[in-house]
Amino acid sequence: MEQILFVDDDDALRQAASEILTAEGYQVVGAHNGREALEALNHIVPDLIVSDISMPHLDGFALLDAIRSTDRGVTIPFLFISASTEASKVSRARRQGADDYLFKPFEMQELLDAVRVRLDRRRQVLLFDTREAHLQTVKMLANAIEARDTYTRGHVERVSKYAMDLATSIGWSREQLTELEFGATLHDIGKVLIPAEVLNKRGPLTPDERTLLHSHVEIGAQMLKGITHLKAVIPFVLYHHERWDGSGYPYGLAGEHIPLQGRLLAVVDSFDAMTTERPYHVAMLPEAALKEITRKRGIQYDPDLADAFCQTITYVG
Asked: What fold does the segment set 149-312 form as a domain?
């Protein structure tokens, strides 16, 4: 439940606003003036502050200054409500970092609309910041893998771009694209536990070594299983080596029994593998790799995704 600190020395207005906001599902903490508000902020971190300007003991401008001078108060949305329509006060409010300004008297619906806009914006900012923090951690893990596998430098970055381009072209939603960005970045995370001598072996792998290498998809899925915000990307990790004809691993799934995330990543992962130098082959030209994907549509790859990829690919050299 989002929390609003409502500061106003007009008891009737504060009570009415509190009742309306509470009915909308918000938790409201009231304060009679700026001093009381600062005392409340010693115990709570509200999602929004709504404050009058003219109040005894500590007015709204002084309250805003005090809040913006603290680390945690910099990002809290601040909405002024005031009977004053003086342009100088409105300008001062904006200069000091107020997010909005409502003139009294106002309809309660105006207040609700202003509150919703500010809180929606705060949610979006927090979501973006959280996503960026998670993505930086994910990229750090991916870099750790590439540091151990000398033949896949830049692989994650290229696969991510190819995957995002393909998914965008077939109409994936913003939420799906976010999951894909994480999934493409982490698709080989299990390789962090595969011995470097196996990852970098120049000659053919022994049957045991091949089995060990193939286990990276299950190892990766297991690593992510206990991380709540990364559970949605497990299908990218676990199924990107399954094949349309059922000859892939780890489970030998076929056709549409392979989750869509794995089918999409299989196409772009293979393209990058074919067009970069690996221990087991020299790099192919992009045109040749695309012909190979077309040849194996309906065999190794989902035919619709293979076709869409060939139509939308922009090669990253």
From this structure: Hypothetical protein af1432 (1.10.3210)
Q: What is the pLDDT of residues 142-195, one digit of tens each?
A: 666 666 665 556 888 899 999 999 999 999 998 899 889 889 988 988 888 888
The CATH number of 3-121 is 3.40.50.2300
One DSSP character per residue, the chain reads --EEEEE-S-HHHHHHHHHHHHHTT-EEEEESSHHHHHHHTTT---SEEEEESS-SSS-HHHHHHHHHTSTTTTTS-EEEEES---HHHHHHHHHTT-SEEEESS--HHHHHHHHHHHHHHHHHHHHHHHHHHHHHHHHHHHHHHHHH-TT-TTHHHHHHHHHHHHHHHTT--HHHHHHHHHHHHHTTGGGGGS-HHHHT--SPPPHHHHHHHHTHHHHHHHHHHT-GGGGGGHHHHHHTT--TTS--SSS---GGGS-HHHHHHHHHHHHHHHTS-BTTBPPPPHHHHHHHHHHTBTTTB-HHHHHHHHHH-----
- More confident of the two residues 149 and 113: 113
pTM above 0.70, yes or no: no
